[in-house]
Amino acid sequence: MTKNIKKNGRGSIEVAGVRLLLDFNALCQVEDELGVALSEMGEYFSSGKIAGRDVRLVIRAAMLADNPDVTLEDAGQVVTKIGVLETVQLFPDLFAQSGLVPDQSDDGGAGGEESGAAGNA
Is the residue at 112 inside a domain? Predict the structure, then answer.
């Protein structure tokens, strides 16, 4: 896993000197651009079928809280610095830290609880 990851307990992760925050606005941005509902994001990102542009899009959305003018190219530079695989490995924690998407980082993932809570937006 990526070194130098700092979870601050306020819904964000700091990595490579950049704070990543998937707040409600960021998740809506991802929803709009991917066409994937909030309640389906956990399944979408754990499917193993995500494209590089999806990774870059999520990182850009997570950077928007601190920099509303951040570009896809800026996000791509962060992904390059972290590493693509390492960036994708951040997603379960990043989404869980948001508190708006069911935590997919636990063992079960598919077992047990329904993900209806995410649809309360």
Answer: no
